[in-house]
Amino acid sequence: MTATPSLVLRGGESVLHFAGGPVTLHRPDKEHHIPLAAISFVHAEGRSVAIVLTASGANEPTIYRVTEVSEAAALAFAEAVTAALPETPAPDGAELVTTSALRTAAPHGRARSTTGTPPWWVLAGALLLAAGVLALVLARG
């Protein structure tokens, strides 16, 4: 039995990850877990890769596309996923994909904390303010 290497494909704000199981697509706001049985085929073309899901005859297939990638990396990713696809795919791949929302982005690209802990720059500002107040108190006293 041969182990599948972990492959990561980065393009723009998207990241595809494959390690022999489901393909994971990370986007800034969502993460999609795509089981291999949901995939009809993976197509690398130039600097992009498309994951085309299976679909019943009446539906258009769902396509996840990542662009701005290395041509060689796109080809290697497509070949690795294609080699791992099951012989009998699911009839409607979109039903098998799970999507989860990620933390929401704040203005200027900073991620809003969902844990209640303020970002580092808020803590640094509070420390600078406290140091300034202490310096004024010591200077007057």
Helix content: 10-25%
Number of helices: 2
Low-confidence stretches: none
Helix and strand element order: EEEEEEEHEH
Distance linking N and C termini: 76 Å
Helical/strand content category? alpha+beta
Trace the largest sheet across and list its strands: 1-2-3-4-8
Dominant shape:
elongated
Overall pLDDT confidence: 84
* Approximate strand percentage: 25-35%
Q: Please give the number of β-strands.
A: 8
For the largest beta-sheet, the strand count, sense and barrel status come to: 5 strands, antiparallel
Indicate the radius of gyration in whole angstroms: 23 Å
Please sum up the structure shown.
This protein is of the alpha+beta class and 141 residues long.
Secondary structure elements and pairings:
Blueprint: E1 7-11, E2 14-18, E3 23-26, E4 30-34, E5 39-45, E6 48-53, E7 63-67, H1 71-84, E8 98-101, H2 120-140
Antiparallel strand pairs: 1-2, 2-3, 3-4, 4-8, 5-6, 6-7
3D structure, described in words:
This protein is an alpha+beta fold and 141 residues long. Helices cover 25% and strands 29% of the residues. The chain has 2 helices and 8 strands. It has helices at 71-84, 120-140; strands at 7-11, 14-18, 23-26, 30-34, 39-45, 48-53, 63-67, 98-101. The strands form 2 sheets. It has a 5-stranded antiparallel sheet with strand order 1-2-3-4-8, covered by helices on one side. A 3-stranded antiparallel sheet has the order 5-6-7. The mean pLDDT is 84.
Key features of this structure:
141 residues, 8 strands, alpha+beta, three-stranded antiparallel sheet
